[in-house]
Amino acid sequence: MTESTLPHLPEADQPPKLRRLDLPERLDLAAADELAEALEHLCDSPLEIDASAVTQLGTLCAQVLLAARLQWQSDRVAFRLVSPSAAFRDGLTTLGLPSDIFENGSTP
Questions:
Q1: CB under 8 Å to 32, separation ≥6 — which residues?
Q2: In the CATH hierarchy, which top-level class contains the domain 18-94?
């Protein structure tokens, strides 16, 4: 088979497209399953998560986000949390986590 007869797969030539997830205002117990499901569907894709609208961050959703960050890191896929609201940062602090845990490769 010569090179000219090989099928061209453009997806293989292109890096995966950056996906975006906008977090809801309330990341409470009721939101945890939906958040985990959304992240599962985005697995293996470079991901940017916008936390600017968050007004409440609960323990389970924080755990889901931290687990996702560690999974993306393990898979060597880009994972960024951008524009964390003051309430999001305060929620992390209340849980005993550094408010910058999603920045600069901080680890739990």
A1: 58, 60, 61, 64
A2: alpha beta
